[in-house]
């Protein structure tokens, strides 16, 4: 069987399931669902459905499964790897009406939340109870927590608090068959069969659609301190990163930013900042906890380390406003860099001590292929986002040569013990590089798992390890 | 095809692969491999092989796969769910020669370790470098880290530091096909395809054999404080548990012990302890960190909470020797309880605020079915080990009625939002209870995943969700 378009009869059934008002078919209505935050890519779905319950998702999926309709689940559309792009058309299931915080359980320090809740909205709600949900991607103000689950998201605080993988306890998932399951239990430990919760996290909507999420919460730390350290070279900044841990300090964030990143925030976001000559790189370092003396002590330890890495200046944020201003630099950097030019963003991750070699290599590869790059990211995790800027590169080079350059960057990443993506996922735009690290054996296991969950290959086709062998027109 | 016994020709091939000295066939030599620490169960394998390298494991597995020989991987044999019992005979692959700490990478705070290294040996080796590997099951002095991976192990410090799931970064795995893969990357984050590392953790040797493990390390905290709090009721002790977290303290351990557990340590381990009348339960509470003032402050916060829960006494350990003595009580409790009688141990886990209801229910179920139980465990995680003692129960009741009682305990556990095992695994002895929580859909997904990795069903047959449907005599 080949994938099928949605017939008028089927469309009518969709309308009966979710209600007339929540089925979109006009081109203008479909447009917002035709792109995410990935470069300038655009793919229109045939239809968008906006269900509100697991039962509705179940009924939709069952019909699509029986009729070989490709289905692309969609969160807030803030993804950077094209995971939400409906490359085979078909149906987009948009999760924006799953927007309820079902329960904040203060006794157990857990919460149940629907996948269409904006991450920051959820963080704020638990913060009001004195609790912390620490998984805060740069897009926290607009991304959905369901998308975070699907991508195994991180953010600046992973370095101390871990990724979303360490917070999700249990998931309600609708399978292509229409079956609705809970993947695990609402417990901090789980040793009861293969861990389906962990398998779903980072599966990018290819195995099932998440309709409810149970997460662990922790007590909100009372205090934090934030400092911005400036360095004459990228290598010095990156070198300081692993030394801070070796000194026994676990910062709550440890972010790297290139000078150019700051320049573009100044240019595009109106930042007022005294950017000194000779400074090439910055580390934004936060420590948090419940005791001011300990935080001060940690800051001193960090300072001592920085002195050994040719750090030119350390700026302490004294007030909440100053802290917000420093964070604004980091948080607006992605959009500032991207507003400048056509770009591609790659999400590299290596063991953290390999960062200096990685960043040096990225610049050398750029020089070889004639592209400029701006790097920033979660240096404490060894996670560097590499923004490749088209700038003056010719269209021909951009569309042909560049791919070889990116391949070299990923090759270097893998050679350093790393992998292609730390938190953005593989989606559409990284899948062609997966064979740099992974073998036919990995692909066979992944495809086998995919077949178990989605035998007809309807869920988010064309992603991660696709193109797969086809059976008829269906990816298997 | 049915499972086959190992033919003399195949045995000769095994000898060529691992060397004559490392193939055991005599009954006396096989005896140590015929049981683990699970009750009084005993199953002899036909043959034991003791390979030393991934290549040797690969060659063995390939032959067994081609010849339908059941293979049971074995660590130190300290498991409590019968996971290492060769219930279908065949070949036991004993991992004890995989006993090297390959590398402690102080720059990246990572280590590479073989699966046959004793957990405590590894902990001590990293502690010498000022680093902490915090996953310390009660059996840390004898269990293997490979077994810990296979069971998703925890231990007392999970409450602050997380389970082994949060420390394993990458695994070298041999598949039944003989293929050797690394499941992921040596990175703190990973969003590059389905997470095979997490899938392997807790899979109890049914998907592949782990031959090398890369783990994350953290800085060793400098100080800790340990206190033993006594309560007049189990419910009061369990009730205090979630209140401690709500007060904003995350202890590094928070262990529950019933009075009877202490009585048996006194009786069987020669403990000198002033066990006061009216005391029914204890919490062993540790806080750790790098600042003595903060630790003291945390202890005071804990104390304030305890006062609200009818705590009768708090004993502070002032010296290292006193700390060791308190830990000895907890660590020797399992063996002391078990030396007393035939027993069964069940590993329940619930959201932590449900502990008082769980323990009350366990006692009521015991009264109904006529069995005595001794409970202890990692209360901070909601994880309670329930030791059911045969005592005066008749053999008939023990062998028939008891199963219904255990089923009721697990039913209660599941009703409270929990699951059957938090850290011991399902193995052989819990598998019949899996259908209390899990549906045919779960079983179909698990079996599907099993088939992808192990299409001939040779790896650790008869465990977790077996008995499976048979194709010939092979579980699929």
Question: What is the topological layout?
Answer:
The structure is a homodimer of 476-residue chains.
Chain A (H helix, E strand, L loop, with lengths): L7 H11 L4 E2 L2 H4 L16 E3 L4 H13 L4 E4 L16 E4 L6 E5 L4 E4 L5 H9 L3 E2 L12 H7 L6 H4 L6 E7 L5 E3 L13 H5 L8 E8 L1 E2 L3 E9 L2 H13 L6 E6 H11 L11 E9 L2 H16 L3 E6 L3 H19 L4 E7 L5 H15 L2 E7 L4 E7 L5 H5 L1 H15 L18 H4 L2 H14 L16 E2 L2 E2 L1
Parallel strand pairs in A: 2-4, 3-4
Antiparallel strand pairs in A: 1-2, 5-6, 6-10, 7-11, 8-9, 8-10, 12-14, 12-15, 13-14, 13-17, 16-18, 17-18, 19-20
Helix pairs in contact in A: 1-3, 8-10, 8-12, 9-11, 12-14
GO molecular function, one term (chains A, B): oxidoreductase activity
Protein name (chains A, B): FAD-binding protein
Keywords (chains A, B): FAD, Flavoprotein, Oxidoreductase
The number of helical elements of chain A comes to: 16
Mean pLDDT of chain A: 94
Low-pLDDT segments, ≥5 res of chain A: none
DSSP strand tally of chain A = 20
- Output the strand order for the largest sheet of chain A: 15-12-14-13-17-18-16
Proportion of helical residues of chain A: 25-40%
State the CATH class of the largest domain in chain A.
Answer: Alpha Beta
Q: How many structurally independent domains of chain A? A: 5
Structural class by SSE content of chain A: alpha+beta
Distance between the termini of chain A: 12 Å
Rg of chain A from C-alpha positions?
23 Å
User: What global shape of chain A is seen?
Assistant: globular
CATH architecture of the largest domain in chain A: 2-Layer Sandwich
Oligomer: homodimer
Largest interface: A-B, 93 and 93 residues
| CATH fold-level topology of the largest domain in chain A | Uridine Diphospho-n-acetylenolpyruvylglucosamine Reductase, domain 3
Q: Percent of residues of chain A in beta strands?
A: 15-25%
- Major beta sheet of chain A, specifics? 7 strands, antiparallel
């Amino acid at each position: 069987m080949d994938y099928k378009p949605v017939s008028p009869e089927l469309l009518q059934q969709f309308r009966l399931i979710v209600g007339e008002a929540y089925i979109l078919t006009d081109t203008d209505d479909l447009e917002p669902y035709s792109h995410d935050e990935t470069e300038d890519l655009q793919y229109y779905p045939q239809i968008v459905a906006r269900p509100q319950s697991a039962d509705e998702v179940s009924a939709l999926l069952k019909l699509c499964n029986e009729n070989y309709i490709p289905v692309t689940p969609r969160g807030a559309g803030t993804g950077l790897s094209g995971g939400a792009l409906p490359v085979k058309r078909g149906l987009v299931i948009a999760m924006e009406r799953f927007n309820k915080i079902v329960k904040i359980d203060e006794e157990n320090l857990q919460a149940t939340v629907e996948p269409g809740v904006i991450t920051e909205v959820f963080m704020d709600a638990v913060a009001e109870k004195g609790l912390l949900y620490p998984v805060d991607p740069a897009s926290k103000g607009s991304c959905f927590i369901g998308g975070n689950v699907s991508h195994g998201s991180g953010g600046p605080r992973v370095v101390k608090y871990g990724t979303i993988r360490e917070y999700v306890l249990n998931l309600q998932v609708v399978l292509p068959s229409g079956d609705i399951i809970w993947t695990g239990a609402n417990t901090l430990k789980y040793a009861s069969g293969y861990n389906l919760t962990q398998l779903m996290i980072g599966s990018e909507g290819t195995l099932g659609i998440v309709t409810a999420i149970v997460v662990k919460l922790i007590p909100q730390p009372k205090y934090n301190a934030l400092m911005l350290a400036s360095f004459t070279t990228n290598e010095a900044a990156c070198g300081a990163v692993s030394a801070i841990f070796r000194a026994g300090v676990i910062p709550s964030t440890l972010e790297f930013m290139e000078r150019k990143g700051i320049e573009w925030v100044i240019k595009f976001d109106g930042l007022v900042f005294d950017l000194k000559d000779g400074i090439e790189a910055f580390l934004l370092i936060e420590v948090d906890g419940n005791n001011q003396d300990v935080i001060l002590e940690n800051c001193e330890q960090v300072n001592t380390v920085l002195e050994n890495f040719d750090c030119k200046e350390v700026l302490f944020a004294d007030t909440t406003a100053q802290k917000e201003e420093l964070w604004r630099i980091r948080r607006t950097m992605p959009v500032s860099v991207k507003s400048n030019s056509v770009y591609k963003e790659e999400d590299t991750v290596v063991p953290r001590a390999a960062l200096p070699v990685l960043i040096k290599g990225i610049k050398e590869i750029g020089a070889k292929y004639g592209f400029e790059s701006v790097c920033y990211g979660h240096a404490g995790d060894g996670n560097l986002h590499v923004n490749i800027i088209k700038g003056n590169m010719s269209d021909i080079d951009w569309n042909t040569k560049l791919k070889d350059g990116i391949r070299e960057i990923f090759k270097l990443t893998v050679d350093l013990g790393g992998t292609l993506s730390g938190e953005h996922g593989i989606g559409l735009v990284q899948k062609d590089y997966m064979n740099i690290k992974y073998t036919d054996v990995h692909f066979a296991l992944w495809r086998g798992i995919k077949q178990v969950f989605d035998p007809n290959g309807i869920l988010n086709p064309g992603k991660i390890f696709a193109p797969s062998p086809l059976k008829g027109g269906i990816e298997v």
